[in-house]
Amino acid sequence: MDANEPTGSQVKLADLIEAMRKLCIAARPHEPGTGSVTDARGAALAVLTPDGTFLSANRTAAALLGYSNAELVGKQLVEMAPDDCCAALARELSVSAHREFHSFPTVISDRTGHPTRLMLHQQTVSSGETGRSALLTLFEEPLISVPELADATRLLDASARDRLTYLTMGQQKERQRLAAELHDGLGQALTLVKLMAEDALMRIRRGQVDDAAQLLDATVLRIRETIGDVRQICGELRPLMLEQLGLPAALSSLCRRIERSAENVSVMFNCDVDDEDVPEHLKADIFRLAQEALNNTVKHAAATEVTLGFRRIAGGLLMTIQDNGIGYENRPLSTEDACTTGLGLIGMQHRVESHGGTFSIQSFGTSGTLVSAAWNA
């Protein structure tokens, strides 16, 4: 693939999903998911060209690196490394371009210039036409520094070494990201609201009542947006409906909300699972999976009927999301799709498989898509 051509359109959804499955197996060959700590948003994922140019990135990767999704697209990963790490990172990327899977430690500077030690796991995304067309990249933060990691891993067996080396997002880093989001997002929004209110007050004192009224109307809209941001951050930490209603009732409420917000879409919910049947550590991820799948269906599938099923099976739990939409049929993904649908779906896959579950997507031409996830419980 020429790094200068618009390569995002050549990445196919089915290829991304298969690459994610291979990546998880290669990165954690011993007891997948053991010792894994996932942050509120899930795995930090991006699709890069073989020379390290970002084609797309999900929200977690963007937050980790201090950029928006759109700002990362087109950036060179090597240019984000400190000067003394650029050459080593370029060499590792060159190795990744010629291997199916490659893991390596590196240092990347975020937007503020602060260096962060990371483990990068890169899996080639195969294309039927061009072979290796892109690198699916998982960014992970070791909970101990890379030099300490090197010393420790020499003393451990292979299984323990894998668990130690490939821990996902550390809790401390997630606290830092949430603090930055509160400061840079909510903090700035509240400051703007304060300034707008003060401006309106000054206009009232000058007798400019109509101007003040218009400014206060805009202020109210800004406050509503800020309230929505607060709810989103809180929901990412722990969905409120889970706490109040339990998982089955929360899923039912989600279906009703999706149906109300979408035009001409009927959402059915079939469930034979009680809340106490679901292990506590799985509840949030199961809810997230349903939420992401239903939102994807409404946005992209052009479906009129969606059925969310949640039932007990031998030895575990099964969730299915079936729609009668247009399917995806290995369709190429644009860069925007890869940021939303593509990386969103493989993020769902990571959530399921990191807990030892199985995940699959079946497309039926123009007659819909079936998303399935099963967990041992």
From TrEMBL:
Pfam families in alphabetical order: HATPase_c (PF02518), HisKA_3 (PF07730), PAS_4 (PF08448)
Record EC number: 2.7.13.3
Enzyme type, top EC level: transferase
Annotated PAS domain residues: 45-78
Alphabetical list of SUPFAM superfamilies matching this protein: ATPase domain of HSP90 chaperone/DNA topoisomerase II/histidine kinase, PYP-like sensor domain (PAS domain)
Keyword Transcription regulation attached: no
Record-linked InterPro entries: HATPase_C_sf (IPR036890), HATPase_dom (IPR003594), His_kinase_dom (IPR005467), PAS (IPR000014), PAS-like_dom_sf (IPR035965), PAS_4 (IPR013656), Sensor_HK_TwoCompSys (IPR050482), Sig_transdc_His_kin_sub3_dim/P (IPR011712)
Any GO CC annotation of this UniProt entry: membrane
Catalytic reaction equation(s): ATP + protein L-histidine = ADP + protein N-phospho-L-histidine
Residue intervals of the Histidine kinase domain: 177-377
Alphabetic keyword roster: ATP-binding, Kinase, Nucleotide-binding, Phosphoprotein, Transferase, Two-component regulatory system
GO MF assignments: ATP binding; phosphorelay sensor kinase activity; protein dimerization activity
Keyword Cell membrane annotated: no
CDD domains reported for this sequence: HATPase_UhpB-NarQ-NarX-like (cd16917), PAS (cd00130)
Protein name (record): histidine kinase
Origin species: Paraburkholderia sediminicola
Organism phylogeny: Bacteria, Pseudomonadati, Pseudomonadota, Betaproteobacteria, Burkholderiales
